[in-house]
Amino acid sequence: xxxxxxxxxxxxxxxxxxxxxxxxxxxxxxxxxxxxxxxxxxxxxxxxxxxxxxxxxxxxxxxxxxxxxxxxxxxxxxxxxxxxxxxxxxxxxxxxxxxxxxxxxxxxxxxxxxxxxxxxxxxxxxxxxxxxxxxxxxxxxxxxxxxxxxxxxxxxxxxxxxxxxxxxxxxxxxxxxxxxxxxxxxxxxxxxxxxxxxxxxxxxxxxxxxxxxxxxxxxxxxxxxxxxxxxxxxxxxxxxxxxxxxxxxxxxxxxxxxxxxxxxxxxxxxxxxxxxxxxxxxxxxxxxxxxxxxxxxxxxxxxxxxxxxxxxxxxxxxxxxxxxxxxxxxxxxxxxxxxxxxxxxxxxxxxxxxxxxxxx
Length: 360
Hints:
Blueprint: E1 2-3, H1 6-23, H2 29-46, E2 50-53, E3 65-69, E4 72-79, H3 87-98, E5 105-111, H4 117-125, E6 132-135, H5 137-145, H6 150-164, E7 192-193, E8 199-200, E9 203-206, E10 212-213, E11 235-237, H7 242-254, E12 263-267, E13 271-276, H8 278-286, H9 288-293, E14 301-310, E15 314-323, E16 338-344
Helix pairs in contact: 1-2, 1-5, 7-8
């Protein structure tokens, strides 16, 4: 069984999301806001940011969070009022950014009840006064459930604002992607058979969420056991839906990084689907309706784990989570975000595309 390093993060992410949902029952907006700040501190730490409370850059306020990732500092403002955040919140953050000693400070405003249209437009027009990145409730729940996606989402929001002059929010339309057929991917060299010896597309079992999949053999990459997680490179990519993940598989296959027996697992809150083969994985991923109809109470999120070997004797993993296409959100799911990352031990002379590079 391959249990990714994401297993530890997943447990923390699930706890963060559960704690967030409990905060909604607090009657006091002030108490909700304070508890939300504490929760965000945990989130940024689990996403491997350095976090300071009551930092000098936040003055004159004493309750802001300041998080650092690399050479970039983020001044974080959390709001959970009964109304959407308006321009006055942006002005307050801009003032504190201007007083910061470093020019590399980026504002982050997280508002559970969203933002007014005039505030979003003001941010776009006045982006030359310093970048401020916005998070609504949908994106907040996304990163709480998958903390490792936070770094990539911040990068996407900053790029959209600075380069394209657009404010990136979950409600914004996402670009359409060309649908690649699953039949173009290699099929499995082995077959799964039921008790009647008839072929199965996958094996269904009970289970829950957890980034793992079963494999018959784990490649030996000469790791020395000890503290730490070895030498690795995790690269986030941005598929918007299941078609984006299939597109990523096509990219891996074009580099020769698809074997005849990749193993995969699709996870729901009450069931897991285990299978073999890249083509079979793509077909099962797109057959969300059939999977959901087999469940009495389908969760709004699905997680997937995909394992394969590659040239050079190593392996890589692909993990992703996203909203399942339930009846309540079918109209918007083609644009709903998926977050994914690959990690592996592949050494190959091929040069992978930048959106899918991941080598240990």
